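Hey, can you fold this one?
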Amino acid sequence: MDKMVMPETTAAQALGWVDDATKAISPAIHTSTTYVRDADNQYRSGRVYARDHNPSFDQAEAVLCELEKGSKAALFASGMAAATAVFMALKPGNHVIAPKVMYWSLRNWLANYATQWGLQVEFIDMSNLDELKRAVRLGKTRLVWVETPANPMWTITDIAAAAEIARAGGAMLAVDSTTASPVLTRPLTLGADIVMHSATKYLNGHSDVIAGALVAREDSDYWQRVKAVRAQIGGTLGPFEAWLLLRGMRTLFLRVSAACKSAQILAEFLQGHELVEEVLYPGLASFPGHEIAAKQMNNGFGGMLSIRVKGGEAAAIATAAHVDIWKRATSLGGVESLIEHRASVEGANTPVPFDLLRLSVDIENVDDLIDDLDQALMRGHRA
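Sure. Predicted structure:
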């Protein structure tokens, strides 16, 4: 696009790119795994091998750069591939700080695998800035990892303040912004160095692609190491998946806006429900971190919330068993609303309360979602 436009337009038109050869407004899918060298053995096209240079990545990465206001982006085969690349680009002995409550698979990887090859990993309450200040080791801490809102308690971390603390200690700040998406929060504009998305979720939005993405505030030696990890480990997205991801991103703003509105309505309904002990949602004024969320989240507070069910674990599981419209499934950010007893998924050593249900509120009619969850709570309580 030749002029500045609103981010909704950037996403819907995918930067307005048109194929030069065919004038198609939908991009081609490039399946070639390799590219021809010039006669003098050079690669002036800039493409050597599809693991790192497939043109199917270009448009989606460019759209993400524009939405996040970054300088470089890279697609990965999954959110885990993207997240772990951030840590694998560090060096043995580096100290890293991560939240106690965060995406469980990454927390498990940090605790059980990253430590085996030399990273010093420390888990803290990332919403407590004083605790973060105490945890940073000047000259030794290389990376602070923030997830906000943090799955599945939706804890809020002040990104700008965390970036200042990290920078003062000589560390970078990386933010998992999966649940916020670029619609609600742009961590790079708040001082973060890297933003990560499990693109499987809101960016794709249709529960049919496993993908991850990183966007960097600036190119650097460290960013080049991250890209090298992607190429050498093989965590690269396939061309068809990249095409599906880009297609999903075109409706990102519509989907997230609808999810935010419905989640706010549902949270307010559940806050007064006789069978709900607590509602965890950043959009509620009573929620710890609401003021910070209001400062750094625009256009809403997200489509994710959790409830703690009166009656404990048995009542929570029975509630999930009695839904009709909600789907009992792991994931979030698709077009269908999902419900999950999260502690059962995470297993031993989970920090998640056993009476908690995680809800991904999506684009169905909100009255249908409320009625279905209400009857499930009633039936679950009687079970």
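The longest helix spans residues 252-271. Let me know if you want another pass with a different chain boundary.
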